Structure formats: C-alpha cells, structure tokens
Amino acid sequence: MSHNTPNQPAGTPEERVARHLKKDASLLAVLHAIQDETGYIPADVIGPLAQAMSLSRAEVHGVITYYHHFRSEPPARVTVQLCRAEACRSMGTEALAAHIEGHTGCKFDSGHQPDTELETVYCLGQCALSPAMTINGELYARVTPQKFDRLYEAARASAEDLV
Ligand code: FES
User: Fold this and answer.
1) Is the pLDDT of residue 114 over 80?
2) Across residues 30-35, what is the average pLDDT?
3) Is the CB of 85 under 6 A from ligand 1?
4) Is any atom of ligand 1 closer than 6 Å to the C-beta of 130?
5) Which of 40, 100, 130, 131 could be bridged to 71 by S-S, CB 3.0 to 4.6 A?
6) d(CA 117, CA 108)
7) 156 domain-assigned
8) How far apart are CA 97 and CA 75, in angstroms?
9) Is 139 a pocket residue for ligand 1 (Cβ < 6 Å)?
10) Residues 106, 134 share a domain
C-alpha cells in the first residue's frame, strides 16, 4: 500500500474522466481510479463525471462525501494514521498520540496543518504488534516515540524530494 501523492494529471477535466470510464464501470470504480491518479477528487471532474454517468452533480457529490475514503482536496504531504483501538490502547497508544501531536505540532482528526495530517483509525490488523500506525500508507508496528520521530522525519524528507 502506498501513499497517493498528488499529481498534476494531463488533460481537461473531461479527458481526465474519460480516461477512467471503462465499460460498465461503477461510479465508485471511476472515483477510485481518479483518486489513485490525482490523490483526491478535484471539483472540476464532478460535472463531466455526472454527465458521463447520467447522474446529477449532487448524486456524485453525495457519494464522494458519503465515503470517508474519498478526498475533496489534495492530501497532506505526510499522512499519519494511528490505531487507537483496544489492543493498541493497552500498549500506550494514547501516550504515543500525545507525543506525535507534540512532535508534529498538529492535532489528530482536524485536517492538514500545514503539511501533515494525523488520523485516528481503529485496528490495522497488527494487534499482536501494537501500537501500530501507517505513515503515507506504509504500515509500522511496535511504534515507540523514538521510532515515530525517525519514520516521520524520513517521510517528510522523502516528500520534499517529490516537490
Ligand atoms: S488494535 Fe491496533 S492494530 Fe488492532
């Protein structure tokens, strides 16, 4: 699993939609393809997408906002997902969360600030190796504050390289 880096895809919004319109493709499948390419669902593709799928703009917008997976704005350069479910909580995830907020200067679940996003998730399937987290889609287990600092700074440095 890798992080969806915002790209600058070529073409008009109509062309960008057309690229992902496969025969019998569902709206969800096309939205996934657009987000995989761009990192989010740009507002300017909603009209062409609605038209191509014989839906209203409101219907397309409703699907985008209903599914937490879809983003309406570019993702942060570094996205941290911290598991705060039971097994991880028993291994100190709340203290780790406080450390992460202090280290990054960001708050969990409140959007980008300014280039990092901290998200709470519930179980990453690593309960025996808790606390668990992802950084830009890469999974890490048995995370300590020191390990987080190292991984976070490496992710920031690698995001710099992409700019
Ligand atoms: S509870 Fe955290 S990975 Fe399962």
Assistant:
1) no
2) 93
3) yes
4) yes
5) 40
6) 7
7) yes
8) 20
9) no
10) yes
